[in-house]
Specification:
about 260 residues, mainly beta, Immunoglobulin-like, five-stranded antiparallel β-sheet, 1 helix, about 5% helix, DUF4397 domain-containing protein
């Protein structure tokens, strides 16, 4: 009987030694994760590396999850353009991360030469409502001796062909390479615009006599789906003092 008691006590001691209280785990049992989203605005896929080991490739508009990363540990995340030499010239983003406990870090990354954006970014900066459009002016000089005349223009947009001031939106200042506020489109109507020199108030025309320009055939275009293709880039070219505004303007996919 005494021998049985000793055995029972020994077993209870072992259970106590190897048991933990509920919810109390060794640190190595905690894990974190990372979600990396490649913007649909990106022009290329991206190769993702964690501590020098390739974790996968993300196409534009897609994402990748890196899971079971030991909580509290740090890792070196590098992202390059896909199908390219993994050199500094093709580096998109580079950062050190500490993996959270039972949680996931979410990162948005972009690489767009058209938008002149590369690296980690806040995607809400370029968000567009589904019934709206945002506009950016891009300036190109076709003669190297001519400098950019203005860093900012005023722009007035019109739903449908402009006839009266009532057809238009208020005049909005627009800095080169930055996007405007969102303009709400009227279903079935094209969007026109006028460019204005903020210093003189004069309308900008091209090298003919045009003052009004159709931004894009939003009313009938089968390409445009509100909010999906809603970032529009207008390119102003300058040659020998004359201006030319491209048509159609360049649509950039958002979603």
């Amino acid at each position: 009987m005494k021998g049985n008691i000793i055995i029972a006590v020994s077993l209870m001691s072992l259970i106590a030694i190897f048991s933990c209280r509920k919810g109390d785990y060794a640190p190595e049992h905690y894990y974190g994760g990372i979600n990396i989203n490649n913007s649909a605005l990106s022009v290329a896929g991206m190769d993702v590396f964690m501590d020098g080991t390739k974790a996968g490739t993300i196409s534009p508009g897609k994402s990748i999850d890196l899971n079971l990363l030991t909580a509290g540990a740090s890792g070196h995340l590098t992202i390059y353009k896909a199908d390219s030499a993994h050199t500094a010239d093709n580096l998109v983003a580079d950062t050190m991360l500490t993996f959270p406990k039972n949680n996931k870090i979410s990162l948005d990354v972009i690489c767009s030469e058209l938008l002149q954006i590369k690296g980690f970014w806040d995607k809400s900066i370029l968000s567009v409502p589904s019934d709206s459009v945002r506009v950016r002016i891009k300036y190109v000089s076709t003669v190297t001796t001519i400098t950019k005349p203005l860093n900012a223009y005023n722009i007035r947009l019109f739903n449908g062909a402009p006839k009266t001031a009532r057809d238009s939106f208020p005049v909005v200042p627009l800095t080169i390479n930055n996007y405007s506020q969102a303009f709400t489109l009227k279903k079935g109507l094209d969007l026109y615009y006028r460019m204005i020199d903020p210093a003189t108030g004069a309308y900008l025309k091209d090298n003919t006599t045009n003052y009004f320009f159709r931004l894009y055939n939003f009313g009938t275009s089968t390409v445009y789906v509100g909010g999906s293709y809603a970032l529009v880039t207008i390119t102003i070219s300058e040659n020998a003092g004359n201006y030319k505004l491209t048509y159609p303007a360049t649509l950039q996919k958002v979603n």
